[in-house]
Amino acid sequence: MTSTKTHIAQFNVSRLRHGPDDPRLVSFGIGANMVRREAAKTPGHVWNQQDILDGDVFATRSVWESIEALHAFVFSGIHERYRRRSAEWFVPMEERNFVLWRIEAGEQPTIEESQRRLDMLRGEGPSEAAFDFSFAVGEQPQR
Question: 54 Cβ partners below 8 Å, 6+ apart?
């Protein structure tokens, strides 16, 4: 039996408070570039991409070797410092804006696949196909 190595794909979206070219987002743009560069140097990081969707949605896709590597990056260092400032740049979202899923090593998630997984999590709750950190570590899903 052949075993296929899997990685963790991550997708998150946030609606910008201001247009992407608005001077009030300069500090966010600087921070996003610093966070992306730091991610690339982090153990367990495989790939990442940042996009602006529909003119006002900042989206990040990334691939990590493990849940633990992703979690350590998200909740520490420069990412955590900028995550704590998110209210300056983003409108609060009432629905889930973050999803995880397993992919085969070497794959890179497309925007379409990423959005499909987020929609799945929003509509059906956490499952093996689309989940959050709590589900990944065996805690009760938040609905």
Answer: none
